[in-house]
Amino acid sequence: MLIRHVDEDDWQTVRDVRLRSLRESPDAFGSSLTREERFAESHWRMRLRTSATWVAVDDAGEPRGLVSLVQEPGSPEDDRHVVSLWVAPEVRRQGIGWSLLDAVVRGGAAQGASTVSLWVVDDNASAVDLYVRAGFTRTGERQVLPRDPDRTEERYVRHTARGGLIGT
């Protein structure tokens, strides 16, 4: 599996993987399939200009996973935020999630971030397990899930090599 940093010319691939992720895991993200199906090419290109994104591609050239890294509004200048992590169900538990997370941690360090953070819904045990095994730690910072006030999520953080700790 190749983890490839993509740019705005890869917008169709990113769109296709993102829409598949929303179809297959609709409760895992802060957006919806209906919303993102309406995005024009210009939106996808803008998204890729403003957030570092990586795609996992198999030996046949098929995209099998996705992750992006953003500067979250209101967060410290030396923190980057992981969004949209998704791995296709047929290739889960093969290390692709780890590889995508390693790519964003390295990407965050390259951008000067000392930490990389993410939010995970409390009832997503498999995601929590992946993040903890990949070196993320709980912060205790919690919030109500914006799209579902009956669910909560917690912020996890991992230090980059720039932040003084070598990743897993």
From TrEMBL:
N-acetyltransferase domain spans which residues?
Answer: 1-162
Q: Does the keyword Ubl conjugation apply?
A: no
Q: Which UniProt keywords apply?
A: Acyltransferase, Transferase
Cite the Pfam families for this sequence: Acetyltransf_1 (PF00583)
Instruction: List the InterPro entries hit by this protein, alphabetically.
Output: Acyl_CoA_acyltransferase, Bact_Acetyltransf, GNAT_dom
Any keyword Plastid? no
Q: Which stretch is the leader sequence? A: none
Highest rank taxon of the organism: Bacteria
Check the record and name the SUPFAM superfamilies matching this protein.
Acyl-CoA N-acyltransferases (Nat)
Q: What is this protein called?
A: N-acetyltransferase
Identify the species of origin. Cellulomonas phragmiteti
